[in-house]
Amino acid sequence: MRILIIEDEFNLADAINERLKKEKYLVDIETDGEDGLYSAETGIYDLILLDVMLPHMDGFTILKTLREEGINTKIIMLTARGEINDKLEGFNSGADDYLPKPFHMDELVARINVQLKKHNDIKNKDIITYSDLSLDISKLTITCITNNESTNLVFKEFQLLEYFMNNPNRILSKDQIYDKIWGMENEIESNNLEAYLSFIRKKLKAIDSCVSIKSVRNMGYKLEDK
């Protein structure tokens, strides 16, 4: 599980980082609002810890922007602004939880675990669908709903297609895909990605699905129906 901390209090961000690493989470830190939004928009994170008072862009603006862009990453607001109006603004803007400062680190970890359990409960549904395409997570198969034709996937094909189907009609850059599927520190040859996408495209064609993965010049790839 990967967590993004957007927090300009360096000591607090480092303390949270150290604790979450002990909990076996992968953690990245941004201390500026605009940089935090850019990282959050990659869609590679399972959860974001978001401060409200940040340089260059406040947390409420970041939250609203992400939700307007259709990014449904779990977000816990961390802020000294604990008044009810601030909490309501956070929840009404799409926050999943709101933890006023100061807080106990054990409570933060507990809240993170609760949100990620909910996240996993949603992600672990056996079937993901988009247009006429059905992805069976337990069997690693895809099926065209209209003709009931199906085919098997290898695990990396499954990971890629799951990522695309959870982000339909959204352009995903190569860097986003590398970071999500192979990990930020894992170097791969660019033609590996192209090869897997080629395999997936052939399988989509074989089952006569109207879903396709389009290349968007100089930007990345997008899952869409024809």
Describe this structure in words.
There is one protein chain. This protein has about 230 residues and is of the alpha/beta class. The protein has two domains: about 1-125, Rossmann fold; about 125-225, Winged helix-like DNA-binding domain superfamily/Winged helix DNA-binding domain (Arc Repressor Mutant, subunit A, Orthogonal Bundle). The protein is about 40% helix and about 25% strand. It contains eight helices and eleven strands. The strands form three sheets. A five-stranded parallel β-sheet has the order 2-1-3-4-5, with helices on both faces. A four-stranded antiparallel β-sheet has the order 6-7-8-9, with helices on one face. Strand 1, helix 1 and strand 2 form a beta-alpha-beta unit. Helix 2 runs parallel beside helix 3 and helix 6 (about 155-165) packs across helix 8 (about 190-205). The protein starts with a strand and ends with a strand. The model has no long low-confidence stretch (mean pLDDT about 90).
The computed structural class is: alpha/beta
Q: Mean pLDDT, as a whole number?
A: 88
Which value, in Å, is the CA radius of gyration? 19 Å
| Distance between the first and last residues' Cα | 33 Å
Encode the helix/strand succession as letters: EHEHEHEHEHEEEEHHHEE
* Total DSSP helices: 8
What ranges have pLDDT less than 50 throughout 5 or more consecutive residues? none
Largest sheet: 5 strands, parallel
CATH topology of the largest domain: Rossmann fold
> Helix content range of the residues, please?
40-55%
What does the overall shape look like?
A: elongated
User: Beta-strand level of the residues, as a percent range?
Assistant: 15-25%
What is the number of domains?
2
